[in-house]
Amino acid sequence: TVTQYGFSIHLYADDTQIYFAFDVESSTLDLTNIQLCLGEVEKWMVLNFMKLNDDKTEFLDIGYYVSPIENLDLGESFGKIELSPSMHAKNLDFHFDHQLDRGEQINVISQICYLNLRDLRRIGSKLSFELKTQLVHSNILSVIDYCNASYGGLTQKN
Questions:
Q1: What is the pLDDT of residues 94-146, one digit of tens each?
Q2: Residue 2 has what pLDDT?
Q3: How far apart (Å, rounded) are the C-alpha atoms in residues 3 and 53?
């Protein structure tokens, strides 16, 4: 299992997330446990008639430091699995970036709200004021409200 390698795991309906920590001060990074763990996950999936979706398999290195894995060539390190560090990843429709500064999430939310407002503007002349208000609440404010607790402490830059 994943825990025998010292990793934590979160299971969702169709998603599995494996969490681990490593020493950023280390001059050499040992990828052996990661390789073995991913190999075990892949074997388990094959035995249970499932397939690891390489296109959706992401490796996110989180921290306010220069990543020790940023310059590693991980392409061959994990056998059949093509794995390289991502700058951001999506989890339950929330976009995390590698420094957790929420910049990617804010960009995505801004784009969604802009597109929704643009669509509402196209049809706005055909709608009553009450219906426009209701559509703004359901299509704009609900998007902003999702995970709003994570926006606490944002700086002026964000």
A1: 877 777 778 888 888 889 889 988 998 899 889 899 998 898 888 888 888 88
A2: 78
A3: 21
Among 119, 6, 24, 123, smallest CA distance to 69 is for 24
CA dist 128 and 77 (Å) reads 60
Under 8 Å between Cβ of 138 and 102: no
Residues in a beta bridge with 8: 19
Residue 13: band (very low, low, confident or very high) from pLDDT cuts 50, 70, 90: confident
| Count of Cβ atoms closer than 10 Å to residue 105 Cβ | 22
CA-atom Rg of the chain in angstroms: 21
Which one, of 97, 77, 66, 75, lies nearest residue 37 by Cα?
Answer: 77
